[in-house]
Amino acid sequence: MKILHFFVFGLLLSFGAVQAQTPSLTAPLVEKSRQQTAEPKIQIALLLDASGSMDGLIEQAKAQLWKIVNELARSRKDGKAPNIELALYEYGKDNHPSKNGYLLQLAPLTTDLDLVSEKLFEIRTNGGSEYCGWAIEDALDNLNWSDREEDLKLIFIAGNERFTQGPKNYKKVCKAAVKRNIVVNTIFCGACKQGVQLFWKDGADRAEGKYLCINQNEKIAHIEAPQDAEILRLNDTLNRTYMSYGGRKGAEMKARQKKQDVNAAAFSLTERAISKSSGAYKNSSWDAVDAYVENEDVILEADEEELPEELQGLEKDKRKEVIEAKMKERERIQNEIQELSKQRSAYISKERKKQAGQKGNSLDDAMLDAVREQATKEGFIFEK
């Protein structure tokens, strides 16, 4: 059995407003969804075949995660940056119960980029039966999809075995997705012709999606840019602007942030640093600065023991002063990174032109092309 792991995206975080007069810092640690938000939304569910040994694709996903996030963060609709939510599944593993279709939801539709990164890096392959129809149906039924027609809702299912396996009829499942305005794209890991023969193209066609085929063993070419070193230095400075609240849980989530820096270091820490400087990266569920920006009462009215050490023992006005100073410092650093990112993008674009005709056939190439095309049809644009 082979395996495919695919990862996309990227993203803008959105947490619900805290409604209590005196907010508890336990509540914000559970992510909330703004049902009445005016911002457009992009929702993407990633269903990854974890049944075999396609480690090359897993490495591609890890290497390209933050690059994809950064591209999605450049999207706009009616001049507004969208909230981006990502869900992650693995399917085709024998250690998951057969009654559940040998699949597992690793992350719900969420704006928590670090959670998705964490789960991606934890995936381990194992032999099993790949039930594509079941995986798609589970994503349709058990994820919190937007009911707004103007939002973009996509499923990407990746694998390399016959699309028709399992007791769930993929034709009926794909038809159900169309009725709910959810587009299903299929990614076959192997020769395009073989994927057609194994019904991956038929699945995409029936769900009004795009059929993609990639070379999971293609090596990702990394172009070093003169701006990389300074971006990484600024990332270290940026990390010092985060202050966890909510006691042990908040501290754990801050530690998770640091761990994802370590995970990205072997692949794309520069891209991750750029993501952290964009609107796609917010952590109001554990970071005092982001929580204050979203609803200042969460911090100003908080109990002493739930505050970060830097705010303990301070009156409200002093808390506000410290938080706003930290917020301004973060904005300054993020702006510097964004400016360097523009210079870096221009440099890399110039270098790639020297490699004209060498466009790859890797995960990010396939997925970004599909997302751009489908988002554009729904009125989104991608800034240069």
UniProtKB/TrEMBL annotation:
Residues 43-241 form the VWFA domain. InterPro entries: VWF_A, vWFA_dom_sf. Keywords: Coiled coil, Signal. The keyword Metal-binding does not apply. Gene3D superfamilies: von Willebrand factor, type A domain (3.40.50.410). Residues 311-350 form a coiled coil. Residues 1-20 form the signal peptide. SUPFAM superfamilies: vWA-like. The keyword Nucleotide-binding does not apply. SMART domains: VWA. This is von Willebrand factor type A-like protein. The lineage of its organism: Bacteria, Pseudomonadati, Bacteroidota, Saprospiria, Saprospirales.
